[in-house]
What does this fold into?
Amino acid sequence: MNLVELDIKQIKKVYNERMVYDFPQNELRPLARIIGPLRQGKYECFGLNDGDNIIGYVYLAKQDNDYLVDYLAMYPKYRNKGLGGEMLCLLKEYLSGADNIILEVEDPDSFTDYEYKSVCQRRISFYIRNGFFNKGVNMLCFDVPYLILSLGNKRRRTEEIEELYFKFYRMILPNDMFEKNIHKFK
It folds into this structure.
């Protein structure tokens, strides 16, 4: 297994064949809002390759030496086989010099449906098993409540993680969309 940088043709293919199914519509940005930052050097897209096939992907927003894991998923037939952890291990290796790596996980305390709450808790456990920390940062992004988990060489205070999160979304979104949809939660 290895992590390979995706070209624009591969990014479009992953988006159209997987991302539209792997993420709810309210969490998936238009493809142009991925390609634009990629061309500006503010975004990176990788696939987990098992030789000839991409079996998972991770898309990253970047600013200076900080990263936001924007999208991460395994293709359905490769899920629950330890490959997501392997992809995170390869990603951590690639980003070994990063100051901070942050990601969003839906806040299980914000949902009443037991089954969905359980899925959220399993995601958090997965990331914590793979080295991420819950610093108690809660954000509301497009009306979805998230916990922000972090990893990296600089352990930042809660306020710094919040500001880093805001910086990423200011970079990704037009100002009016940012102001309307990105907020502290709780």
In short: The radius of gyration is 16 Å. The chain has a mean pLDDT of 90.
